[in-house]
Design brief:
356 residues, mainly alpha, Serine Threonine Protein Phosphatase 5, Tetratricopeptide repeat, 3 domains, TPR-4, Tetratricopeptide repeat protein
Length: 356
Amino acid sequence: MRTRHSWFAAAVLGACVYSAGPARAADWKTDQDAGWKAYKEGRIEEAEGLLKSAEKQARAFGAGDPRLAVTLDHLAWVYCAEGRCEEAEPLAKEALAIREKTPGVDSATLADGLNTLAAVYDAAGKAAEAQPLYVRCLAAAEKAESPEGAGVAAAIDNLAAVDHALGKLDEAEALYKRALAIRSNAKINDGTSIDVTATLHNLGLLYIDQKKYAEAEPLLKKSLTIREGALGAGHPDVATSLEALGWLYASQGKPAEAEVLLKKALAVYEADLGKDHPHVARCAGELGRVCLAQDHQDEAEACCKRAVAILEKASSDPRELATALDDYAAVLRKLGRGDEAGRLEEQAKSLRSSIK
């Protein structure tokens, strides 16, 4: 499964004085603040509507207005959460361009823009394009705050996630541990802040990849516990934690335990993100694998077939579709349908060869 990002909370600029009329500025700020709050609380569809309204108002302020950058930045996050990375990319690029051209822009604001565009690339499976942006983001964050600051920890965590995706596991582990040390610092919080969950989660996934299962489990369980307490059981980040823990058990050869967690995660994703979201597809594919491991062939086929159908329409990452095709092929081979399986495997191979 893919790692998840930390994010910078982009500064809301409504407290400043602008030339636009006060009524328009107030309307923008109301929709902007409400939309970002909805996004952070997992109400993605509501967030999109509010931020689109804020974007319309912000464009009336002028093409280079910093308020427009804030809204475009946040709307890009919403589109990524909806699996619409191709639509998020031009918004993130425009927001960053505005910030880079703003005279006297502060390092923290620049870091926000760099982080968003990098995260869009990463979510689209373009880790190599995300990596240099995250390097710049870390440099800007270090300039903006102390080495122990929350923004620095987030930038380190995101850079680690890209190294992880690029297969640089030793570098990623060192960065995750550095981020975790900052986020667990008693001077900042008691080690149970929601911010620390991203690093706990990502380091746990790295340990799964390294087959260090005993080290992964307590990290993933702690992340799940904190997220459930802070966000509620129906938040998509809670589903991500359930999915990761389920994948851990599947990797350990415990399919029955994995199935329970993956079904819970799938239900949350469907309720919050919709039945055709790429996260639903990924989780359904994983559920298909654990069902196949228990010889629940009909359920395995249904899950894997669903994952492929969703990703053929919704995914911007060819690696995700290739994985889903291979999972479906494995089920078909178990069912004695080798010709169909072979065609899917060739399609998956072709997709992987197309990745730069």
